[in-house]
């Protein structure tokens, strides 16, 4: 399913804070985050080695972009001309959240599988999502938003209400610690697809990685990454890589 929690302009010193889990087929090959050049823009991002592209990333300009699939039984098994992961690269190359949202408004909604795409920088945040029929664009105000594969009435889910309860009041305190985010992203459920940390080994599916990105008012992002489910794999501090952007 994947989970992205975005806090946009909630904390003055850290206008963009992201906590995200990637849920994917256990055998799908990928590389962890590294500094790459995408369409002339230096980005810190992992890479999907099957279809190319990535599922999230951050740039030297302080732009975050992340994507989830959108649940649609009618799209399952279909072949599409484009990879959703390349949309993330295209958005990152735009340099700012508003420019990225403008660029994504030109995407053919039927050209790739349905998706939810979040874009945020120090000045604003946007959401563009596709149901294969048309694109939907929303300008996000300051606050916290959670996006999963089942968001915006794609399908019923208990994951988002559970996260809403855990996130309640969090904006009134300091920026959550790595361990606080790890706890939220390590929740299991009797239905393995309803927790934030998915273990569906019998289906060859689960949480493959977890990433925390915090973009300060000034300076390089703080980035932490777990190359596996956060319930068992500790986060590595990749901020030194972010300093290379």
Provide structural commentary:
It is a single chain. By secondary structure, the protein is an alpha+beta fold. It has a single domain, classed as Penicillin V Acylase, Chain A (4-Layer Sandwich), CATH 3.60.60.10. It is built from five helices and 14 strands. The protein has helices at 84-93, 97-104, 159-167, 178-184, 239-242, and strands spanning 3-11, 14-25, 30-38, 41-48, 56-59, 64-69, 115-120, 125-130, 135-140, 143-148, 199-200, 205-215, 222-226, 236-237. Strands 1, 2, 10, 11, 12, 13 and 14 form a seven-stranded antiparallel β-sheet that branches. Strands 3-4-5-6-7-8-9 form a seven-stranded antiparallel β-sheet, covered by helices on one side. A hairpin with a 7-residue loop joins strand 4 and strand 5 (56-59). Helix 1 crosses helix 2 (97-104). The longest helix has 10 residues, at 84-93. The protein is globular. The protein starts with a strand and ends with a helix. 42% of the residues are buried. The mean pLDDT is 95.
């Amino acid at each position: 399913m994947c989970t992205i929690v975005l806090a946009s302009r909630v904390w003055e010193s850290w206008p963009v804070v992201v906590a995200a889990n990637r849920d994917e087929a256990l055998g799908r090959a990928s590389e962890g985050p590294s500094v790459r050049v995408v369409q002339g823009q230096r980005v810190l991002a992992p890479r999907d080695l099957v279809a190319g592209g990535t599922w999230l990333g951050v740039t030297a300009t302080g732009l975050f972009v992340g994507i989830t699939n959108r649940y649609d039984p009618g799209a399952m098994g279909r072949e599409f001309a484009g990879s959703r992961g390349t949309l993330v690269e295209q958005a990152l190359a735009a340099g700012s959240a508003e420019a990225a949202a403008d660029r994504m408004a030109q995407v053919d909604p039927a050209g790739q599988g349905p998706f939810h795409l979040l874009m945020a920088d120090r000045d604003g945040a946007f959401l563009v999502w596709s149901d294969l029929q048309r694109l939907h664009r929303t300008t996000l105000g300051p606050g916290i938003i959670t996006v999963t594969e089942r968001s915006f009435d794609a399908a019923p889910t208990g994951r988002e209400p559970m996260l809403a309860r855990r996130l309640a009041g969090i904006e009134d305190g300091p920026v959550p610690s790595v361990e606080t985010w790890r706890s939220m992203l390590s929740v299991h459920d009797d239905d393995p697809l309803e927790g934030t940390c998915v273990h569906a080994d019998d289906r060859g599916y689960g949480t493959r990685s977890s990433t925390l990105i915090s973009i300060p008012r000034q300076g390089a992002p703080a980035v932490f990454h777990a190359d596996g489910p956060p319930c068992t794999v500790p986060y590595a501090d990749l901020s030194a890589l972010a300093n290379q952007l």
